[in-house]
């Protein structure tokens, strides 16, 4: 009798522990811990040293490009700025190989962040999507995922990581997210890769065109952001 009474109690305790560990809040806490650990690791590792010290001499050819693409993806998921990695890709591998590695790493890093956000954070964060602007953004991403993500990737003023996790909280599909990320990131990524590959010739047409594209798109993004902020402020004052 004592054994049969003890077994249901043990089973009930195990079930409660399992539910607590798999609850939305627990998974969200795990996501925060993973992101903090990744950001700390990248801060200590300092991948930007690739711009000064170069790629390990023991690695070369296609193997080096593939490994760089994988490292790129992991770094972007850990909040390392993509422009630094794009410049490094161009400086290390040239325009063609560097662009391929950068786009592959961009899609990989975005996929890692999207997956983490979808599995660990979506269920806990969706109830927090309140207010007119948050609901509008969520509806746009959920209903028009590909088009919305294309616009976000083409607009250089939107932080890469922020777009990843906003998309993860929404109901956007995987295919639309990854394809739009790869296509939409191409122009800005190419400009940085070309700038990195031609940095030794700062007066060359390719370098000047790439830098001009970066400056113009950056200024355009700042102007659009300022205009949007001004309109939001006017709307708040009128209310």
Descriptive terms for the model:
239 residues, mainly alpha, globular
Tell me what the structure shows.
Helix content is 82%, strand content 0%. The N and C termini lie far apart (69 Å). It is built from eleven helices and no strands. The chain is an all-alpha fold and 239 residues long.
Q: What's a concise summary of this model?
A:
The protein is mainly α. 82% of the residues lie in helices and 0% in strands.
Give the tally of β-strands: 0
Strand fraction band? under 5%
Largest sheet: none
Unreliable stretches: none
Number of helices: 11
Shape: globular
Instruction: Give the overall average pLDDT.
Output: 77
Distance between the termini: 69 Å
Share of residues in helices: over 70%
H-E string: HHHHHHHHHHH
What Rg do the Cα atoms give?
22 Å
Structural class: mainly alpha
What is the strand and helix layout of this fold?
Blueprint: H1 2-21, H2 24-45, H3 50-53, H4 61-77, H5 82-125, H6 132-143, H7 145-154, H8 160-169, H9 174-184, H10 186-197, H11 205-238
Helix pairs in contact: 2-5, 4-5, 5-8, 5-9, 5-10, 6-7, 7-9, 10-11
């Amino acid at each position: 009798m004592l054994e049969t009474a003890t077994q249901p109690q043990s089973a009930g305790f195990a079930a409660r522990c399992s539910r607590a560990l798999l609850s939305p809040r627990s998974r969200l806490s795990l996501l925060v811990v993973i992101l903090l650990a990744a950001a700390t690791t990248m801060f200590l590792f300092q991948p930007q040293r690739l711009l000064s010290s170069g790629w390990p001499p023991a690695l070369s050819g296609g193997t080096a490009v593939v490994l760089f693409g994988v490292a790129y993806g992991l770094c972007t998921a850990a909040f390392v700025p993509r422009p630094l990695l794009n410049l490094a890709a161009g400086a290390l591998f040239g325009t063609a190989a560097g662009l391929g590695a950068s786009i592959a790493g961009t899609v990989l890093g975005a996929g890692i962040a999207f997956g983490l956000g979808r599995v660990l954070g979506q269920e806990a964060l969706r109830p927090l999507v309140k207010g007119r602007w948050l609901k509008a953004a969520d509806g746009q991403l959920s209903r028009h995922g590909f088009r919305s993500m294309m616009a976000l990737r083409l607009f250089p003023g939107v932080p890469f990581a922020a777009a990843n996790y906003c998309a993860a909280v929404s109901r956007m599909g995987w295919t639309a997210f990854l394809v739009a990320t790869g296509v939409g990131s191409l122009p800005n990524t190419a400009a940085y890769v070309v700038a990195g590959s031609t940095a030794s010739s700062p007066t060359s047409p390719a370098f000047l065109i790439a830098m001009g594209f970066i400056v113009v798109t950056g200024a355009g993004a700042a102007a659009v952001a300022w205009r949007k902020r001004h309109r939001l402020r006017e709307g708040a004052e009128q209310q």
